[in-house]
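To close the section, here is one more complete example, presented without commentary so you can practise reading it yourself. The ligand is iron/sulfur cluster.
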Amino acid sequence: MSRPKPSQPDATVLTGAHYLDGDEACAEGAIAAGCRFFAGYPITPSTEIAERIASRFPLVGGTFIQMEDELASMAAILGGAWGGAKAMTVTSGPGFSLMMENIGLGIMTETPCVVVNVQRGGPSTGLPTLTGQQDMMQARWGSHGDYEVIALSPSSPQECFDLTITAFGLSERYRLPVLFMMDECVGHMTEKVVIPPAEDIPVIERRWYRGPKESYLPYQAGPDKVPDMVRAGDDYRIHITGLTHDERGYPVINAACQSVCVSRLVDKIRDNAGDIVITDEEAVDGADVVVVSYGISYRVATRAIALARAEGIKVGSVRLVTVWPFPEARIAELSRKVKALVMPEINLGQMYRELQRAAAGNCRTLLIPHCGGWVHDPNDVLAAIREGAK
Amino acid sequence: MSELLTTPAPGGPVVEEERHPHEPFLRMDRIPHIWCSTCGLGTVLNCYITAIQRSSVPRADHTIVSGIGCTGRAAGYVKIDSFHTTHGRALPFATGLKLANPRLKVTVFSGDGDLVAIGGNHLIHAARRNMDMTVICVNNFNYAMTGGQFGPTTPEGAKLTTAPYGSYEHPFNIPFLVDSCGATYVARWTSLHVREMIETLVEALNHRGFSFVEVISPCPTVYARRNRLGTGLDLLKYYHDSAEVRHGADTRDVDISFKGRIIVGRFVQRCKPTYLDTMDAALGRSVGKEFVCYEGPMQASDGRS
Amino acid sequence: MKYWRRPLDADHCRSPHGIVHIIINRCKGCGFCINYCPKQVLEFSRHFNRKGYHPPVVVKPEACVDCGLCGAICPEFAIWSTPNPECILDEPAEAKPA
Ligand SMILES: Cc1ncc(C[n+]2csc(CCOP(=O)(O)OP(=O)(O)O)c2C)c(N)n1
Ligand code: SF4
Ligand code: SF4
Ligand code: SF4
Ligand SMILES: [Mg+2]
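Output:
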């Protein structure tokens, strides 16, 4: 770990070029984004993030606590956020399962925070040290009830840094737990990471309520459907509950209030999807085949795409930087222009279902599945590209 | 007729348009509360509200966190920052609140099932860390909100919907549990002991470290009915007859059996560095000059910190 | 009231008399206040309140010592006492210099 030199005036943002793994870069991204409260429970392959935070926080004025389990970690970061801190927890599949109920509490109470899942192979204890992308649907639907989420998936240590900052920004902007879906390969891959000067880092601050105290209603939203926030201890006398609630935050147990409450939670993401969704496209215009990928699978796909191009196949790439919300409109548009959409993912077809749904039969959709434990062989992706180009 | 009319009978003073002295601390737009007639929960809430006013903590710093259950509804009635979380997770949520804003006086107000069953792991760890917060654990010996199932505090022999022939599990002695885990203030009263409970709650709120107050309280609707123990008033009479005040009692001796004696009092009061004390001291020592103490919560609009 | 010893200020102080306040329609008729009032000031009313409960009624107003127990034990925030200023002192406070 590159510890700041004592002479360095500000240890917060380690501006410069570093050689970091994805986990370490994620921790640095969190610090640069202003995260100052961390609660977690060790689990491979996410532990290095917690370790990096534990050693860095005392130098930057953050509070780290190792909780007794992931149920506690998730609850603690929600408390931390209401206490007025930017808060984060990190885990992997088994811990992610334990966090689900309180991710739902975070959605319902509109609590900004970031939950990192460095995915490994599952189900159950599965492959603790080996990669997977099998929690993608769990990220979307893992907590009970109806809701929308925002999830991102980095493909490199540099992105683990950059997108952690984006994740914090989205969580503050839209007030919800943002899920940061890394995987073991990206987490443990060591590459050059460039940390920009602090002033060039786009840090988004909390949507503090600025009106008169008497007229504050915790769940009164503006045109963007996101309410402004206050923190505990400022005498607003807020009531915050996981029960269905009205604008005052008071529980109202009936269908009418449920409709207003849940619709807004969903609509604040759906209506703003254009602002939230990030994709990274390359050579899609005029392509016969487009490979749609995310996370570590994108890295494998780039190799397969290069091989296919060498064979003269017109192939483009769409990388899902935000995996949720899914870029439905864009995929639908592409499906009308290409012969095939090809998706490699380290599971037996999760985001692929979304791809199929968005493509709606306009073109062929090909899944390159993988059970986890290792990344795809680029030749398998190449074979699918060839098949799609037929 | 005004809601605020008094005494309908001859001889009584007639006082009009008056407000209960606790009303400024209650969300009056949510009163009456949902609790049953002769339930003890309202009494405990009443005493807590008295105690926060008598404590040395400014009102804005008082924060209440509840889990889920009849008791868990308490957070929804107090006009201070209040959080109604998930079943069992009030303590870790409260831990996050406290660490993010150490100025807060965080009180967890929840039931025996919430704190000792589903949240038991968090309870022992919060006590172990001597996390600076107050816990009010209302023990009605069952999961009341879900209709009266047995739980880890149900005395052996008591009948409940999932123990139709009487519970045969060994119950927790909660004061002993939290004492042995490191709690630095431990007391127990019943909802009949209102003066003592208020005094104790004030002490607990002023205490630095993990303070824990168990309040034995009647659940007439499910627990008492199933066990033919009568109304809440009958249970208060039982508390009156079987409570034994023993300050400083060895917590090993304060277990409660079905219809048995209830030892009450302040059992533990000791000084020990809190979680934040030990954290700051240890990091200050080992990290040295580079150590930057937690900078506090982000500045909100009104600039309070 | 009977004292086990004569209080030092008994010549000019009486035990404080209280006024009992009851919000009858907030009461859920648990009887806690009635049963545990040390002075038996209260009884169940024969009347029903709007919720269908029998609220307490003050039967011995002069006996109330403003101990506050009814106010503390009431689960409904429906009853409380306040000192009756006319009954606290026989003489003005300046009668006894500090
Ligand atoms: C995860 C979860 N499991 C179960 C429940 C159902 N549930 C709600 S309250 C409760 C028991 C509450 O018991 P206690 O904490 O003793 O409170 P009481 O109602 O007795 O005051 C249960 C099991 C729930 N809400 N969440
Ligand atoms: S069910 Fe029991 S604990 Fe719940 S409000 Fe009724 S009497 Fe009280
Ligand atoms: S204040 Fe005391 S004496 Fe007066 S009515 Fe209430 S309980 Fe009885
Ligand atoms: S204690 Fe309160 S609710 Fe119970 S009878 Fe008296 S006034 Fe009514
Ligand atoms: Mg209970």
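Once you have examined the tokens, check your reading against these statements. The longest helix of chain B spans residues 41-54. Chain B is about 30% helix and 15% strand.
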